[in-house]
Specification:
Blueprint: H1 2-14, H2 17-26, H3 29-43, H4 48-52, H5 63-70, H6 75-81, H7 88-101, H8 105-123, H9 130-154, H10 174-181, H11 186-196, H12 200-209, H13 216-237, H14 243-267, H15 272-276
């Protein structure tokens, strides 16, 4: 975790010109993950030191701020301390219900939707190099929505309105998203996904999934591989854009995640083939 944070911080330092701003904006996602990790850890009664081990201080909330949040006893106080941060309006609106229900999933969805709304605004601001940034963010949103649709097919009993799980700004509209979710036949669902997503690599993967009964984790990993493959292509087409930086940030993330999965899998004595299902290579 600390190695990943260090590399991310270094990337922000050396990124030139406007690319520094795009890099900083992109890494704000770690603010969401870190705050949610702290809130969930507090609810589960984890010790601050244990929570700290998995934090990635790579966003706007640095190590000092995260340590301050960790020192608080109550989640209400943690939310209060974030007043003035761009996440605060969503946290203030959603936390009471999350506290009552004991689940942070809806609040998490709302935080990421706000993140993508803000980052899309940055990408559409007309700044030099923003079009390359926009193309990647839209790709990421498409892959995220595709993963959510597959997850909904596995967890059909969710009580949450599927529209609340949709992220705007990509290829799909909310109407497309809900329509796709309503299709029960797997092959029909895949064919309709292909109609909505005009991406050759994604089409090839969707064709492979026809008739297969892969696990959700396997499907998500394969969708991630498509995303990384498309990022590589963007990077080669635009070597002086934000794309090479984003490729590095994502590959570094999955390098660390793979090592973590291997370590935890071995510690839990899982078979190698089971661990391999969770690796992004």
């Amino acid at each position: 975790s600390w190695n990943l944070a260090k590399e991310y911080q270094k990337s922000q330092e050396i990124a030139p010109g406007t690319l520094k701003g795009f890099t900083h904006a992109y890494l704000r996602r770690w603010d969401i993950q870190n705050v949610l990790t702290i809130l969930r850890g507090k609810v589960q009664g984890e010790k601050p030191g244990k929570i700290k081990e998995i934090l990635i201080p790579a966003g706007s909330l640095d190590k000092v701020v995260l340590d301050r949040l960790l020192s608080e006893e109550s989640n209400d106080r943690i939310i209060e301390l974030l007043k003035g941060h761009r996440m605060f309006p969503v946290l203030a609106r959603e936390f009471p219900a999350a506290k009552e229900s004991g689940s942070f999933s809806h609040m998490e969805n709302e935080l990421y939707k706000q993140f993508y709304y803000e980052i899309l605004a940055d990408a559409k601001a007309g700044i030099k190099g923003a079009s390359a940034f926009l193309s990647y963010i839209q790709l990421e949103i498409d892959i995220k929505n595709a993963k959510t649709l597959f997850r909904l097919r596995v967890d059909a009993q969710t009580d949450e309105d599927v529209r609340d799980m949709f992220v705007a700004g990509g290829t799909l509209s909310v109407t497309d998203f809900t329509s796709l979710d309503s299709i029960r036949d797997t092959n029909e669902f895949i064919e309709q996904l292909k109609v909505n997503f005009r991406n050759d690599s994604l089409h090839a993967l969707l064709d492979e999934l026809k008739g297969q009964k892969g696990s959700l984790s396997d499907i998500e990993v394969r969708l991630t591989r498509v995303q990384l493959e498309q990022m590589e292509k963007m990077s080669k087409r635009n070597p002086f854009s934000i794309h090479p930086i984003l490729v590095y940030l994502e590959k570094k993330k999955y390098e660390v995640f793979n090592l973590r999965a291997l370590a935890r899998g071995k510690e839990s004595r899982l078979p190698s083939e089971k661990i391999a299902e969770y690796l992004v290579m």
